[in-house]
UniProtKB/TrEMBL annotation:
<protein>
    <submittedName>
        <fullName>Nucleoside triphosphate pyrophosphohydrolase</fullName>
    </submittedName>
</protein>
<feature type="domain" description="NTP pyrophosphohydrolase MazG-like">
    <location>
        <begin position="156"/>
        <end position="231"/>
    </location>
</feature>
<dbReference type="InterPro" id="IPR035996">
    <property type="entry name" value="4pyrrol_Methylase_sf"/>
</dbReference>
<dbReference type="Pfam" id="PF03819">
    <property type="entry name" value="MazG"/>
</dbReference>
<dbReference type="InterPro" id="IPR004518">
    <property type="entry name" value="MazG-like_dom"/>
</dbReference>
<dbReference type="InterPro" id="IPR048015">
    <property type="entry name" value="NTP-PPase_MazG-like_N"/>
</dbReference>
<dbReference type="InterPro" id="IPR011551">
    <property type="entry name" value="NTP_PyrPHydrolase_MazG"/>
</dbReference>
Amino acid sequence: MNTTSSRAQGPHGTEASEAAVGRIVLLTTSHRVAPGLLSWPAWQVLRDADRVSCADGAHPQLPYLREAGIVVDEAAPSAQELIEACAGGRTVVVVATGEGEPRLTDGLARLAGSGRVRMPELELLPASYDLPGARLLDLVQVMDRIRAECPWSSRQTHRGLAKYGIEEAYELVEAIEAGDRDELREELGDVLLQVVFHSRIAQEDPDAPFSIDDVAGGIVAKLIHRHPHVFGDETATTPEEVKEHWLRTKALEKQRTSVTEGVPLGQPGLALAAKLSSRARTAGLDVPLPHGEGVGYELLAMAARAEAEGVDPEAALRAAARTYRDAIREAESGG
């Protein structure tokens, strides 16, 4: 079929210069959005199209398109066939598969570049968009497959992975302190992986299983409850008032009898000392530091002083240690 020489008669018998070339619409959808939730422009073009084609017979959108009365041709037309189908000003919609349509788009590009074919209008129409956080669904799916098929990952336990959680947390802190944005993004991903990995393992527990959705639901509920100044009727105008809200609601939730409950004793010593000092100060408790002999009591006093001054003693010590490391390297190089 010669798409460049077709002619038509005008309303008064005059011959139109050339026939309308039609339109090819490549319709893309996101697998992270529930099938059938398409944009209104997408539904309009599907409804008005002269032909709708989809090469993937298992495409999740197909049942919903058929339910809407749209006839879908489950074929993989070539670029030339699509151009011919557009003759006379017709519109052809191609519902893209999950991999896109590289063969089709490459074929159209070759024909357009040849200069021998009058091309129809080409349009890319996103029918659905990812919501913020949608790629987290990909992470969950990838983790499911790795857990099922990877010989190493399938054998991991919460206890076995615990050390990696600690390591990744320290690497995240290091990236933050170094100000390396690329490293920060990567380390945040590694920490997130630990959360998803542990949640996936937890699904298999025979007695008390929970999933990543339970984890996310729990932290959402906690954040809402502990921010009554955002989601409720209370007010807070300073960070100190926010912290008071947080500690008060947390105490009610946990029904703790001491402000020291929930402070992990296994954390690094300086951080532990600063945390205890912070809890006491926030609660309005005037508790003198214990006096004793030795470096431990001296470090305790220094950590408490740092916390009172708004300084993270762990971060301060790491910064000083890095300076010391650089001095050692300079000495080693003979500088």
